[in-house]
Amino acid sequence: MSGPDIIEAVPVQQAEASGRARVTQVGRDYEEHHHRYVRGWEYLRGVGMADREMDLVENAFVDALGSNGSGQVAHAVSMLNRPHGRRHVLVLLGETGTGRRAAALRVLHSVGVPRERIRWLVLDWDRPRTEQLPHTKGHGFVLDLTACRGLDEGFYTGLADYQQEAEAAEAFLVILATPEGWNPGTLATVPSVRMIRPPATEIAKAHLRHLAADRVDWLSSAPLDALLAQSAEPSDAARLALLVAQAGEDNRDAVKQEFTDWQDHLQKWFEKHSNPEDLRERALLIAAALLEGVPADVVLDAADRLFAEVGGVLPPGGALAGRGLDERLHAIKASQDDDEALSLEARQHGLPEAVLKYVWRQRPQLRRVLLQWASHISAPNGVAVRHLRRIADCLVQLSLLPGGSVVQLVASDWIATGRSAHRELAVEVLETMALHPVTGAGVRKQLYDWAHQKGTSKELATAVADICAGRLGQTYPRIALTRLRLLASRSDGLAREAVAEAVRRLASTPEQRILVLSEIVGWAEAADSDVREAGTDTFLALTDIACDTLLPVLAARETGEDAADTLAGELFVRGWRAALQDPNAAGTAHARLAAWLDSPRLSDDQVLPLAAAVLHGHLGQRGAAELLVGSSGSSDLGRMRRRLLLDLLISQHTASPAEPGSAAEPGNDAIVTAA
What we know:
Blueprint (H helix, E strand, L loop, with lengths): L2 H6 L14 E4 L8 E4 L7 E3 L2 H9 L12 H9 L8 E5 L6 H11 L7 E4 L18 E5 L8 H17 L2 E6 L14 E3 L5 H12 L22 H13 L5 H8 L3 H10 L6 H12 L5 H14 L15 H8 L2 E2 L5 E2 L7 H12 L4 H12 L9 H12 L5 H12 L3 H16 L4 H13 L5 H12 L1 H5 L1 H12 L7 H12 L5 H12 L4 H14 L20 H18 L5 H13 L5 H12 L8 H6 L6 H20 L20
Parallel strand pairs: 4-7, 4-8, 5-6, 6-7
Antiparallel strand pairs: 1-2, 3-5, 9-10
């Protein structure tokens, strides 16, 4: 069988996929346009919607009136539910903040898709491809293309085929796009609706009628009546309604403070604590905000470090100097629990994030100092090294503010210049930014550029591999593998070891093994010599029996439920054969296969059929005889398996003799005796 034939023979499907047997997928980066066949497990993954969000969509949705006098969502639903035939694809056009997400969910609900069958698609691709869009029977999908700068002709024309497949499966797709990013021309006839932002006050009232009907009047009385302008975004209205619903009894002032990020409170606090002797309390407030919920001794040490960063001189006497903990906590309005963890959140909800935002906006000259300080306290042996994730999350939130681009620039510089003390935080920040809904697309593109650029340093290339191996690779495995392929294909070989380790980490997740192995085998079979070499090296790294993340290849079975195991075995056969065809890798490939034969970690059923499939038709290749004979270092188990393997190969050859007139394989007439 050829590569595509092997895949086609095994009907593997992901849960989100329908019964479609195969898809044609365009190449995996920004330049290539070759096609290959892939299976259902390469459809985009869908994420279910939270019940709380669907409750609001079903019971508190505000449908803005369009120019025709009817609600926009009602109009969209009518375009799908045509009397002469249902449509199954719809586009909602609008800028971010016009309520398209809620509108899409409302449309799917209105056409009869149950909430448990609605999925938000995770865009694990580098270019939109209709072939990867699932159309599971009776499901509804939302595809957000807001971040796409432009769609190619193939996407628009592919929607016609998708529409037919969705209709046959009674599935629906709602696409979110901006007016500038959606230009099908005559290439697609998908209906579209231009969204108008609903009045914010109406959204807040509708949500409150569902969440806390007895508090709707809070929105029309002081101090909350002036918080929402009619042009405010729907998300702001929804946030205010939730704050009102969750507030304590008649605690309206606290709702206003949290909704406005505690602006008035913080302005007054900093004015009150503006004397030189108050600088330590300012540092403590900032440290407590960054390290919310962290033990007091860590927060106090971090605060002293920040105080020193800005030129402060600690008083003599160390821990005996100055005011006691209770006084200092009272000054910043923090509390302490039984485990001595400090909290600003417990008394004033939302205050930690508000403090960091306030300082970032009001003290622009302090921004790089804050980043440097955060890096120092989270470095190896730093006082807050155990709280790296919390610190990174806070810095990512700051990156969304004016001047926030400095966060990514500084983190990148720390890595590129080899500053090991800052590396862990820098990698964590970039990884978190790569997953954030606002910064994610841009950072993922930056990772692509670093992987592709010739001038990228070893430190930066290794960091890209580490990021791809982590949460990015778990959420967007195809995107991560594309960047790893670029790194592995570099002629300088700077990141080969890091790529191999990253691929092993990705493959250690059972749900991703087939996808990862398929990608690597695809590299090893590529026409491009650099990609092929990278694929071969990476595949052989995966087959290292000494590695803790060895991919278990289960014995091939005939039953349908074991199709994934069968496909894994067939992919291993293809990968090994590709490695054996590379003169520079054949020796290592034979050595890896010999190690499998010798290893008690794998059963006979796992090793022997696979080894026979790899060697069948290739016995004349240099190194094959040595593999079958074994060496003085071969284990007793390995010697026994070699005899069984030889018998298996002979029986296969006898069962399928060469066709008359076909060329005999060189060396097939040699007799090989296993040691």
